[in-house]
Write a structure and sequence with these properties.
two-stranded antiparallel ribbon; binds adenosine-5'-diphosphate
């Protein structure tokens, strides 16, 4: 991937090859700037690779993929809607009836400790709670693929730990393919089936090291 801005161009990923199997929970770790976000943006179709292809479920990604869940580092919630309304909005946007997803939304919010906050507005929630709400929002329509870009990056250690447990519980209750970008090797090892380590070597091909994990 080459980013071009005026006369300046930046190489982000070169000759990178990675296959993620269906149902796998893969973590991608690597230092800032090695291309993790670029990779996720290409998988989701937000960014087009300047060369090479990205394939999701045997289809080459040409446009933003609508059928997935995405969680970013800073949760963007509609401040004028309650937590439950924010979650259900995701369903509404896809043209599904909200009523059919109400119970599921409450179930997921309960699973991440937000049941008592479902009718509150985002500004009444802590950073960790907002992030949990955004994870539930990403999961509500049962996407086959969930992409997370440093979802816990802005949280303190204790909250991160709780989020990690929440995420693990959500994944255990309904397995899906998850690509989880993190700075934390600990988190990656604890959560995933496989850890992909990206190490940038300027001007050269990234090294990708795969480490298969055995789930407890
Ligand atoms: P990471 O997520 O691992 O921190 P990124 O994918 O954000 O890495 O960035 C990879 C490289 O691409 C970095 O050198 C970064 O500066 C560059 N880059 C990322 N986004 C842009 C952009 N929109 N324009 C120019 N360069 C970018
Ligand atoms: P992260 O490590 O989560 O990717 P960054 O600070 O690297 O966070 O990037 C934040 C945003 O800025 C991303 O959307 C990325 O694409 C963009 N970005 C990163 N580097 C550059 C750059 N050199 N020029 C323009 N945009 C960039």
């Amino acid at each position: 991937m080459t980013y071009n801005r005026g006369a300046k161009s930046t190489q982000a990923l070169q000759e990178t090859s990675l296959t993620i199997r269906k149902g796998e929970f893969v973590s991608i770790v690597g230092p800032s700037g090695c291309g993790k976000s670029t990779l996720l943006k290409m998988v989701s179709g937000l960014l087009r690779p300047t060369s090479g292809t990205i394939t999701v479920d045997q289809k080459v990604v040409q446009a933003p993929v609508t059928d997935l869940g995405i969680v970013f580092q800073s949760p963007v919630l509609l401040e004028w809607r309650t937590v439950l309304q924010n979650v259900l909005m995701q369903v509404e946007l896809r043209g599904y009836p909200k009523s059919a997803y109400h119970d599921r939304a409450v179930e997921l919010l309960t699973a991440v400790g937000l049941r008592d906050f479902k009718d509150q507005y985002p500004h009444e929630l802590s950073g960790g709670m907002r992030q949990r709400a955004s994870i539930v929002r990403a999961l509500i329509h049962d996407p086959p693929l969930l992409l997370m870009d440093e979802p816990f990056g802005a949280l303190d250690a204790l909250t991160r730990e709780q989020m990690r447990i929440d995420l693990e519980n959500l994944w255990m209750s309904r397995p899906m393919t998850v690509v989880f970008v993190t700075h934390s090797l600990d988190e990656a090892v604890l959560l995933s089936d496989r850890v992909v380590v990206m190490s940038p070597r300027p001007g050269r091909v990234e090294q990708i090291i795969n480490v298969d994990m055995e789930r407890p």
